[in-house]
Amino acid sequence: MGSKDLKLLDVFSYESLVHAVAGAMGSVTAMTVYFPLDTARLRLQVDDKRKAKSTQAILSEIIKEEGLLAPYRGWFPVICSLCCSNFVYFYCFHSLKATWLQGQRSTPGRDLIFGIAAGVVNVLVTTPLWVVNTRLKLQGEKFRNEDIQPTHYNGIIDAFVQIMQREGVGALWNGTFPSLLLVLNPAVQLMIYEGLKRQLMRGVHRELSSVEVFLIGAIAKAVATTITYPLQTVQSVLRFGQHGQPADQSKLLNSLRSVMYLLINRVRKWGVLGLFKGLEAKLLQTVLTAALMFLLYEKIANTTFRVMGLRHTMTAR
């Protein structure tokens, strides 16, 4: 069997599939648990005239004005998008590692490169799902910003159809440019997570404890989120599709101008700290979600490999 055949087997390996399913299941469960925190974060990012600043205050405000279940509005499309997104990301990441490392030990630099490559594929494939789920998640909410126009979508399919009819197919990839820049977020997160994991397992072949996995997952996500948060805010605004920046003939140039326009506009309105508006809610939500996700991911993957009687190669990274 030639080297090309071996690389093809690595790409479509059972191990990559296990990692992808475990990552998808872990992320979906974790996001469901902490979903209201994501609702608060998104509202703070998009509705820039809202007075409530803290996560607790904005959630209390949402429940009082819109009902007890309002913090879970848009749960289904978000979960669908997250499941697809994490499946694609983890599958690509571990397929790339298996293909290029061929059993060799990985390094932080290699982990970062594999993470960026997997992130680019993930963004190009799943951005339409995230555009639709952002619209559905914000639909029916009471905004303080009068310039925001209400939308009326009857589910995921109807949202896809309306967006394509009214705004064109290209609108489904709104926010792709900052999303491509944001592949650094999961890449940095996985680089730090894998690095810390290797340090804890150095010279010892064992499974990490639940506390260890939770802590290194939380640390990795906290660092990655803080570094990339301004671009995440711009991404949310662009996906919502009501940022009010006129289109340019060049889509790439217009995307770059939109990102710069939104970043500069926020700095002018609220100063540099305006770039981090909603960071408290985002950190609380994303750190807890990522930590729980990694914990579930490791447990699911380890259990699956053990049940199938296969050696868990994660310890050889």
Describe the structure in your own words.
- Helices cover 71% and strands 0% of the residues.
- The two termini are 25 Å apart.
- With 317 residues, the chain is mainly α.
Based on helices, strands and strand pairing, what is the structural class?
A: mainly alpha
- Spatial extent as radius of gyration: 20 Å
CATH homologous superfamily grouping: Mitochondrial carrier domain
Termini separation:
25 Å
Reported for the largest beta sheet, the result is: none
| Low-confidence regions | 1-6, 312-317
Encode the helix/strand succession as letters. HHHHHHHHHHHH
Query: How many domains is the backbone divided into?
Result: 1
- Tell me, briefly, the overall form: globular
Strand content: under 5%
- Helix tally equals 12
- Average pLDDT confidence is 79
Brief synopsis:
It is found in: Membrane. This protein has about 325 residues and is an all-alpha fold. It contains 12 helices and no strands.
Features:
12 helices; mainly alpha
Topology, please?
Layout: H1 3-11, H2 14-33, H3 35-46, H4 55-66, H5 75-101, H6 108-138, H7 156-167, H8 176-181, H9 184-200, H10 210-240, H11 251-270, H12 279-307
Helix pairs in contact: 1-5, 2-5, 2-12, 3-4, 3-12, 5-6, 6-7, 6-9, 9-10, 10-11, 10-12
